[in-house]
Design brief:
globular; 235 residues; Rhopdopsin 7-helix transmembrane proteins; single chain; mainly alpha
Length: 235
């Protein structure tokens, strides 16, 4: 029992580290929101807070055993909603007419409220929570709560990549936009690192891989946030 408990504590260190990194970055973005009042910083601040909350819920689940509430929080903020809010931040960089980005943000907020109601109210297979890192398909089955992660997350991730390609095309030959394009690239790369690392880690129940991929992806995304938020260079 002591060996198993020690193993659980060791595994819990990784999601706790990911939560701490995400929280530190959220604080930094919160400072940018306070000082510069840019809507993209607000969206990215929300996304970083979601990463931090989801990672901390995972820490508690791995360390103490999962409860239904912890898994719902982890799933809602870690699998369903964070990538859509990343895309909202990108939208404010991509659209010259801010009304379109405002519309995307409003739709995302409405969809987030709907997802919250669905995930918090979905039936759960309690026995699936005995795993160190439960899979959404095992916990929620074929319910809408599981499907939302595929619909929201995959759609937003695809839009994130399309936005990157569009920005690379539209910003070519414009050195004053180089930081903005590089920032968007780093955000897309970071989201990909999170998706790949967490996907493989969850599939094989490897908490360390899941959490290291999450922390590394968050760090790359944060670098992208800072790069994209630089003032435009004069030419």
């Amino acid at each position: 029992m002591m060996v198993a408990a020690g193993h659980g504590v060791l595994q819990a260190i990784f999601p706790l580290a990911a939560a701490a990194i995400a929280f530190v970055f959220a604080v930094r973005l919160g400072d940018l929101v306070r000082r510069k009042h840019r809507p993209q910083d607000v969206a990215w601040f929300v996304a970083m807070l979601m990463f931090a909350v989801a990672s901390f819920a995972m820490f508690l689940g791995v360390l103490l055993g999962w409860t239904a509430l912890e898994f719902r929080i982890y799933w809602l903020f870690g699998a369903v909603l964070n990538v859509p809010f990343l895309f909202v931040g990108e939208a404010y960089l991509l659209f010259r007419r801010r009304i379109w980005a405002h519309l995307i943000a409003a739709v995302t907020v409405v969809l987030a409220v709907y997802a919250t109601v669905v995930v918090l109210g979905a039936p759960i297979n309690e026995s699936a929570l005995d795993a160190t890192l439960p899979l959404g398909k095992d916990v929620f089955g074929s319910t809408a709560a599981h499907g939302l992660a595929q619909i929201y997350g995959n759609t937003a991730y695809g839009l994130l990549l399309l936005g990157l390609l569009w920005s690379m095309f539209s910003m070519r030959g414009r050195p004053e936009l180089r930081d903005q394009m590089t920032g968007i690239l780093l955000i897309a790369v970071g989201a990909s690192v999170v998706a790949v690392g967490s996907g493989i880690g969850a599939a094989f129940g490897i908490v360390a891989l899941f959490s290291v991929g999450l922390a590394a992806g968050i760090a790359v995304m944060f670098a992208g946030f800072l790069r994209a938020s630089r003032p435009r260079a004069s030419v």
